[in-house]
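hey so u asked for the seq, here:
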Amino acid sequence: MGIIQIEGMEFFAYHGHYKEEQIVGNKFEVDLTIEANLDKVAISDDISDAINYQTAYKLVRSEMMNKNSNLLEHLAKRIIDKLYSELTDIKKATVKIKKLNPQMGGKINNVSVTLSR
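ran it, structure tokens below
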């Protein structure tokens, strides 16, 4: 078993419950952890045996940029669903989405949601 992590993916998108968030947009940061059996690729050194990091990134980017979600929980579920539908051999995926500097009436670095399957 092994772990693949892609951390600090940054996106500007229009997710949020409030209409203003959907108009003005916000910065988001996404961390992805994928647990999988990496024994075969560790021996073969062949990308065709691997969970391709670039493909994983593109799937996350697609969900972040293509359809807005009202809630981070919904967005995290969409990302995990997409990963499982497009990539094989995933044993567990965890996605953490941070909304940076949310407008909540005070100084807040971020709010985040973490979802695993």
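The radius of gyration is 16 Å. The chain has one domain: 2-116.
lmk if thats what u needed
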